[in-house]
Amino acid sequence: MRIRASSKWVTHTLLLSIVPVMLFGAFIYLMGSRIVQDEIHRSSMESLSQVRHQVESDMVNIEQMTNQIALQSDMIAVMNVQNETTLGAFPRTNAVRNLLSQIKNVTDTIHSIYFYHIGQQIVVSHDIVSDVHERRTFKDSSWLDNVDSMIASRRTRTWVSPREMVSLNGEATFTLTHIRLLPMLYKEPKAAIVVNMKPDFLQRTISRFPLNAHGKLLVMNEEGRLIAQFPDENGKDGSNETFLREMSLSSQEDVRTVRVGKHFLSVLQSEKNGWTYAIAVPANVPRQQVEGFKRMIVAISTLLCLLAVYSAYFTHSKFQRSIRSILDRLSSARPAGQTQLQGDGIAVMEEGINRLLSTVQEGQSKRDLHLSLLRSYYLQALIHGNAVDMSRLANELDRSEMFPLGKLCVMIAQMDESGHSAFLKDRELFLFAVSNIGIELNKLQEQDGATFRIETVITDRHAVLIVNYDQDPEASKLPVTLADRLRSVVKQILKHTVTIGVGTGVDSAHNLAYSYRDALQALQMNMASAYDEVLPYANMTLVAQKLVHYPAAEEQELLNALRSRNGALAERSLKAFREELDGEHASLQMTKTFYLQLLVAVVRFVQEYEEDPAAVFGDNPYESFFRMQSVSQIDNWFRVWPLRPILAYMDAVKRRNTDTIVRQTVELIHERYASDLSLQLAADNMGISASYLSKLFKEELGETFIDYVTRIRLEKAQNMLVETELTMQQIAEAIGYTSVQQMFRVFKKKLGMTPGEYRESAADPKSE
Hints:
Blueprint: H1 2-70, H2 73-79, H3 92-106, E1 110-117, E2 122-124, E3 129-131, H4 144-153, E4 157-166, E5 172-182, E6 191-197, E7 216-220, E8 226-230, H5 239-247, E9 256-260, E10 263-269, E11 276-282, H6 284-289, H7 291-315, H8 317-330, H9 341-383, H10 391-399, E12 407-415, H11 427-440, H12 445-448, E13 452-458, E14 462-469, H13 478-494, E15 498-502, H14 512-525, E16 534-536, H15 537-548, H16 552-563, H17 567-583, H18 588-607, H19 614-617, H20 621-626, H21 631-640, H22 643-672, H23 679-686, H24 690-701, H25 705-723, H26 728-734, H27 740-751, H28 755-763
Parallel strand pairs: 15-16
Antiparallel strand pairs: 1-2, 1-6, 2-3, 4-5, 5-6, 7-8, 7-11, 9-10, 10-11, 12-14, 12-15, 13-14
Helix pairs in contact: 1-7, 2-3, 7-8, 7-9, 11-13, 14-15, 16-17, 22-24, 23-24, 25-28
């Protein structure tokens, strides 16, 4: 009886266990879906930030490139060709074509570059020189309307987004176009530079979509028009219109992921140009990642039901008799030698138990697989600072002692682009190999006596290694040592170099995001020069501070000295600029960057007075600058050239301006001496202050403005007194005096006699 009661209790337990299993499965299914959906938002934002940064970097590079093109002497010469000389026959036109061809070939983001001469209506590209309206040789002319609108609104440059670009065979594609009017500071525009980006510029900015889904990337301008999309689809299902409506609702502070129809749409807006970037991922992708949980729970529930039925068969006699009577009726056709019912039941039960064990093992295997996936998501969330949203999973993983030691540090390994390795076209495989090598470093701890653990995460561009080590102060240098060992092993095994940024140590897994950002900053600060190196963030902090301390005060002092034509002050300012950099212990690369920024400021100062810098320097200052190899060379070059030409030019400007102002003022006096002429009125006509005009007049003519006007009026009055019979009142009005008494006072003061006495003396020959 006890055995039978126990069997019944087992049966009831099996039946009741189905409910918590289904509830637990539903909970895990929903939690997994939420986790993966959160991962879509995180990875989408990361991808969108990368796309936005790449697009804006390409646009800035193109803008800087057009500025450099505009300063080329050949470009300036062709721009200044008048309409009398045909542009196609001008020798320097070929030099411009070669320049455009070189820039197009070395820049992988540019589709084509045009130089447009406004006066002759001629367009020059790397392969043709054609009339802009000649459709047989040049069909891409939709940008002309933008040039006209720029001239009307006095703009110097603009981006046309998007623009329909037409090839010679008539094929139309959409692209982004940058237009720059020349010269840079123009009174009347003479030419334009038109740069077209490649139509697939958007595809080049993203390597893959979140969760490897077949998503869609869209960019919308500030006017709500679709600039570009990848993949390039027509949107026949109307999804594009829906996405654009949702994107138009975003603001600069709005970073979000929403459900739009059958997609998850992540939206990010640029603060720089107001463009909106979005990634759409099919909504069924997140649930596919956790669909294994659902199948596993259904299988376990089904097997539990079957097990409860088998248990009830051997436990409840009434149920057993009913099943046995059915089997007896079906056994009449059974051969005589077949196994009895009891034997059949035991065999079936054994087979069911074996199937159950097999299913449980399969479920355990799937659980381990999904736990590994969730573990990877958790580490991703930790380094990006999103682990708060995964607290339940974090508690579960903490119990497994993922980070048992006291300190943590992040290392970021980045594949070097140079070299001829087989991994150049397969970055993901290389990062996977680096990650595995990092894990294998754990096995070396017994050799060195160091205790540490390493967890790895692979992102789009980096292999991230999280080092967990003791809080012992002697172990503080362990991450740098491990990074150098990893760099050496990767170079030896994979035959390709890697650069590793090492962050600062933190005491908690929830602070890993700070260590990750430090390591990433160490890489980014040395992106242009680092190669096969370990870059600890602790060594980069001084450099980061120096990046902020540009000698802006010394630059302004130098510009003021040039404006006032003070050569000695300019020398002292340049010396102070150099001493400021030496005091900060700036590197050669950073010093050259600062001097280049100073050169740009000086060239802009010159362009305030002369739109063509070649008229001042006689050569391209940027080309001369880039030939310098040391700080001493750059400093000596600055002292001799371009400062001396600028000071000489400013003296000439001063001399020319002074002569022009004084000459025009004298002409104004001779034209308007008979009216109410004042110093302020003359200064207003010259566009300068009255005090400055008075100073120039005194320096150039040796007398004041009032004295000069008085002298001219007296000379005119003397002529009228001798040569005419006009009355004193008429003469006073004719020379600009309001009354005869005023003319009498001036005559008496300057000549020592009255106008009447002067007329009498001039009429009496004896008086001479």
